[in-house]
Amino acid sequence: MKIDAHQHFWKYNPVKHAWIDDSMSVIKHDFLPQDLKPLLDGEGLDGTVAVQADESLDENEFLLGLAKENPWIKKVVGWVDLCADDVSINLEKYSQEPSMAGFRMILQGQPPELMADPAFRKGLSELEKFGFTYDILIFPHHLDEAIDLVKNFPNQSFVIDHLAKPYIKEGKIDEWATKMKIIAQFENACCKVSGMVTEADWKHWSKAELEPYIDVAFEAFGTKRLMFGSDWPVALLAADYQNNVSIVKDYIASLSKDEQADVLGLTAAKFYGIQ
Question: Measured by CB atoms within 10 angstroms of the end CB, which terminus of the chain is less buried, N or C?
Answer without folding.
Answer: C
